[in-house]
Amino acid sequence: xxxxxxxxxxxxxxxxxxxxxxxxxxxxxxxxxxxxxxxxxxxxxxxxxxxxxxxxxxxxxxxxxxxxxxxxxxxxxxxxxxxxxxxxxxxxxxxxxxxxxxxxxxxxxxxxxxxxxxxxxxxxxxxxxxxxxxxxxxxxxxxxxxxxxxxxxxxxxxxxxxxxxxxxxxxxxxxxxxxxxxxxxxxxxxxxxxxxxxxxxxxxxxxxxxxxxxxxxxxxxxxxxxxxxxxxxxxxxxxxxxxxxxxxxxxxxxxxxxxxxxxxxxxxxxxxxxxxxxxxxxxxxxxxxxxxxxxxxxxxxxxxxxxxxxxxxxxxxxxxxxxxxxxxxxxxxxxxxxxxxx
Amino acid sequence: xxxxxxxxxxxxxxxxxxxxxxxxxxxxxxxxxxxxxxxxxxxxxxxxxxxxxxxxxxxxxxxxxxxxxxxxxxxxxxxxxxxxxxxxxxxxxxxxxxxxxxxxxxxxxxxxxxxxxxxxxxxxxxxxxxxxxxxxxxxxxxxxxxxxxxxxxxxxxxxxxxxxxxxxxxxxxxxxxxxxxxxxxxxxxxxxxxxxxxxxxxxxxxxxxxxxxxxxxxxxxxxxxxxxxxxxxxxxxxxxxxxxxxxxxxxxxxxxxxxxxxxxxxxxxxxxxxxxxxxxxxxxxxxxxxxxxxxxxxxxxxxxxxxxxxxxxxxxxxxxxxxxxxxxxxxxxxxxxxxxxxxxxxx
Lengths: 342, 347
Hints:
Chain A has about 350 residues and is of the alpha/beta class. Chain A has helices at about 1-10, 65-70, 100-105, 115-120, 125-135, 140-155, 170-185, 200-220, 230-235, 255-260, 265-270, 310-315, 335-340; strands at about 20-35, 35-50, 55, 80-90, 90, 110, 190-195, 220-225, 240-245, 245-255, 320-325, 325-330. Chain B has helices at about 65-75, 100-105, 125-135, 140-155, 160-165, 175-185, 205-220, 230-240, 255-260, 265-275, 315-320, 335-340; strands at about 20-30, 40-50, 55-60, 80-85, 90, 110, 190-195, 225-230, 240-245, 250-255, 325, 330.
């Protein structure tokens, strides 16, 4: 906590606000292509509370990365936000100008990308990149920059001598840690992470996850963590959001989702992991592949692959049903006679 | 979910019978640095193992453990620095002529990690498999070639084969593309497929399908597979025997259930503890380990895992442990385990 207090005195961190850190309402992102419009993210709504670890899981092409980029306002054409709002600290980021966004980015909200090798500048030392980020936000004192840079590197367990190192001189795990250190420069309220561990080995991956969790406990920032590997966030996330074909199919407390998955897609994802300790059983995964989002199915988007599909699923998109703290987009939980007779 | 049927079991070669593949004290070193600082990277050191008929052998290890180098030497992309590998009793170094090399690469094809860059994007997917058939099985007529292409496509779950053959790679998902990779390998009537991280770039939900394809190739097409991966859970799911590599050495090997159920090397234990398992409580003992890459440049004698090993004793810093059979068919290269001391470093 000593670090956090020091930051407040330096005016590095802005005071926290009441209510959710981030409120997403009906956010839609479309790719406008010559061949038509692809609705990659379709009316997604959720909140991220202060200090919360929210994991977003789903297959490739389910829109999870597009959603992240939409939240961080990093979308490039042909992708564009076609509706909805992203309210961060009381301001709708969708409406902000680039200049106003620049002030928010990195200071209050930072992003850690999938591949640190590509995200770090290969011809600049780690320290120089930290300095750039701090200068861009008005920190000019050399002493302060040097002190804070060393401090954040130490936080992620890297010896500050590596401020002089170039990215290629660091291992994959260290590069990813350096990226996280950079994201921590201003002790932001929200860190968005897009599969930060996917390029790492299992041992390095586990140690990085534990470290993110420790830092989060100490500095109380919220994390949105996107991954395709549900087992990775099993023990680290507070809430889990399962996305399928641009929509949220199920969201709830992680523990509860793992113990009692409701949506047939969530159940399928759970059954796709071979266990390392339990009995060796034949698994099937989820047959088929996600729908073409240029022509999404008329009803439930998972219907073509769903083992429990009902006639109405083919024609009507299901609404969200609230069940014991989780929200499920599936007609199975409608309680209608059709289901009961099933 | 049904209990996995017990496989007929790999035919282990007896002492007098040559296994399908026998690797004998194989090493592969790379020269790095410049004229001033000449150094040697020991990617694979003194490695011996066998692969039997109809057997899936998994090599697991972290990046930098040398597991991909093993596959590349066996694919004859690299020459071993020392040692030899024997395929069907014949040394790989004796395979020289174009004809012999072609025959060998048909019997021992490779499936690559990245399904997005290993298929030529400007041709229909039939191009690769038809070409392989033309080169490796010239006796087939063009109708037979097409029929065979359809058969191998359907064998790996690309249905209907005739239709999928007409597609372009960009029209297929990652999982389908990787199946195309296996179909191309299968078209050559292989004995042993070298599969280097074939599922690591695929979504978790799709991986299982590919692993099931690998099991099917073993059971129905009599193919052996050398499955190279960093994912212990998938190795356990599909393979018969396991080889755990660290820094170019085999540290532990044996039947997969035996090695994972009763690991004796601290590194195997670390890997097990670090593997995410949603069905098990969190094991915190792996967190202390940072997962730094092994030191394989000009290594000094001694166990290469000693820098990360909580059990390291004086001997580990002096003498490189050799692989010794501690339990039937279960060998470990660890001084501590060989001394009979219980390990359990990361449990």
